[in-house]
Give the backbone structure.
Amino acid sequence: MKLHRAEEIWLIIGVGIIILSMVFTGYQAFAQGMAPPSGMETIDPQKVDETAPFDNPGVFEVGENEYEVVMTLQVFNFTPNEIEIPVGSKVYFTMASKDVVHGFQVAGRTLMPWLYAICKCRY
């Protein structure tokens, strides 16, 4: 079957966009560690407050200029609700939601924890 030249061009463009999207997503997932939750780490939303480390939320110094922030999220409430960390520190966020998907944004980086999310950032 012979395709019209314009159809061939648009077919190549469409396939190219799909391949480019797959490469971009793969780069983010594997090189930058931005993969969605794997399902390997799950938590019962009804027992978040009883499950370590979420039974003791807060900011913890884990090394020189490195901090871990353990947070629980629920409607109209983030625990802890204020976080202070020195500029230039490496921060590990470990979050769990007690109810629904929540958005969480720090300095232009958006996290969307549903049941359990971990993010390693430098601020």
About this structure: The helical segments are 5-30. The CA atoms of residues 58 and 80 lie 6 Å apart. The chain has two domains: 1-35, 45-122.
